[in-house]
Fold:
Amino acid sequence: MKSRIQWLGVLVTLTWSFASNPDYVTTAGVVNIEPVIDGRVINDPAWESLPGINTFTQKSPDEGEAVTERTVVKVMYSTNILYIAAVCYDANPEKIVITDTRRDAPLNNTDSFMFILDTFQDQQNGYVFGTNAGGIEYDAQVSKGGEGMSISIRRQSVGTGDAFNINWDAQWEVKTNIGDYGWSAEFAIPFKTLRYATGNEQDWGINFQRVIAHKQEQVFWAPIPRQYSLNRLMNAGTITGIKVPNARTLKIMPYGLGSKNDVVSETKSSSNASDFGLDVKFGVTSSLILDLTYNTDFAQVEADEQQINLDRFSLFFPEKRGFFLENAGLFSVGENTFSGPDIEMFFSRRIGIGPNGEPLPILGGGRLTGTAGGFRIGALNIQTKTVNNVTNGDNYSVFRIKKELPNRTSYGVMMTNRTGLGADGNSNGSYAIDGSLGIGEAIQLIGFGANTDPDPNIQGDTGTYAYLLEANRNTKTLTTQLRYTEVGENFNPELGYIKRRGYRKVLFRILNRTRPKDTYGLLEIRPHITYWGYWKLDGFLETARLHVDNHWEFRNGYRIDTAINFLNEGVEDTFEIANGVMVPSGRYDHKEIHIRTNTNLTKPFNIIMVNKIGGFFGGNRQNADVTIGYRFGDRFTSAIISKYNDVHLPGGNFITHLINTRLTYAFSPKLYIQSLIQYNNQSDEWSMNWRLIWQQSAATGLYLVYNQTQDYDGIPMNSKTKSLVVKYSHLFDAFK
Structure:
């Protein structure tokens, strides 16, 4: 008994003993003179008397060394606003890089400043705010300690939830100024934009990051190990003495829109429509927010990027609609992979979007998220409309409760339900438990278990379960990950997402990070091996991949990845991979060469190339994915993405080609034009999404949106659909 108690004590110590970095503590100043937010920090009386934070350490290129350019950060607050100022000195201000001026544009390859706030000081949830020298607004929410996948940020599903939600937009202000000293930024974050615990005077977790683009230099106030990013809340410092106000949040956001739609088939039809709706955001407490919506519309949301499907499993498209994004990570329960999720117990795109991406009308609903009684709480209820001869209305509900503990430890429960409002009144429910256990700074154990209601049309329906167990360890030099997943044949979360059913999966990964000194300009070498395999429950190997790779990252911003993939595919049922080209049932074992390269992404002209050459379903494939980026000045940015596959199979040959062109011109950070032009030869269609955005604040303002989809047969033919939408939404802040 005594030994058991001793072991329990050791486990508790390992799990809970790591607080915010005790070596990095600062105190927030109190506003004496209200600053004018114009980006001019030097010689501003509001900031002059305030002591600054000026000890910054490199993460890259020379880990552990001091920043090469002086950086000073100051923090103060008034009754309602948190102010942060940064002066980023640069001996060569003419070399300052501004890559993009769109809201939420990436900040890793531009001169930028970012900070993270852990307002509950729980090392689990945070807010990221940032800007570049051009003054863009960049904001995101962090959950799960900023880790999510233990290896890297999810590529496909970033913005939908999990650990990093870039599509969350908040109401705040930033301005920048460029001078012979370098550049500076001023941030004004209203307290009501944030969620925090009760109590007047509080300590928060905080960290600051600066990127000096022309030097490929990334620095932090509280040092971050090379395997992590700013989102790693365990490594944040602390800011003390913040006196927060009692929460009073009531934001009313009505909208009105007019639209014109043209449809051309054998005949042409046109229609005009107008509509209005309302969103309300109400602060129940300082940590609990209620969102209400009526006649919800998402016309201003950017169109999905098209994808090429060369397999027999469904594709995943991330959530971008603002109503579903605050605290979206709270609802994330499932399994995430490097190319998107395999399982999501709640996938908000099931609400208001049809199987082919078509919008379905949402009558209204409510969403409650935040913290109460020491628990994270999420609840949602949404009602969709009935559309004659198209779809019956449905009611969707979700309930989530989660207890978060120090050091990335948590446990929770989630339930979802979809109830049809048609004559049959069918329904589907799902139930899940999940948890994580952090051990020390590097080890984490993760798991979840779930079940869904049986299908009433299947007698004796069983196999409605799913579960996952994972252990990972992530140190400065070595990352290891081991995961086991099992999903029953009839597991069916209708309010979630599942890529495939009826399988057992094993995943293993080991990765080494080495930083050589003065070796051919190399910054870091990352050799790694990743294996994943899917077996049907009867033992049939459906998919397996062994990926042997090495990343060669250079100090000048160039990168080369050299890999070989060993592929195994087991096809039980013949499927059509392309028009008229069938893949017969059988086993296919192949190898392919995989090479990725990129030039310096801070330069006005840059290229990313991914090439795969090797066997493919009994034949061979040549794949080339090329992204060409070009910017002119600091206002015009463009990217052309080409995804090309030349496939030769025993059943026939075919070529797939997806071209995606993005063009942006920013008159200012709040007024810009965006276009997304796409051509997909799988569907023989091209489409265009064009948006003029004049933002009043986050998610409100004037939007002019034009969408067009056309057949393509060598030249553009008759239009299938055209739509023009003018939408204006306004923010009324009752407690401004």
In short: The chain has two helices and 44 strands.
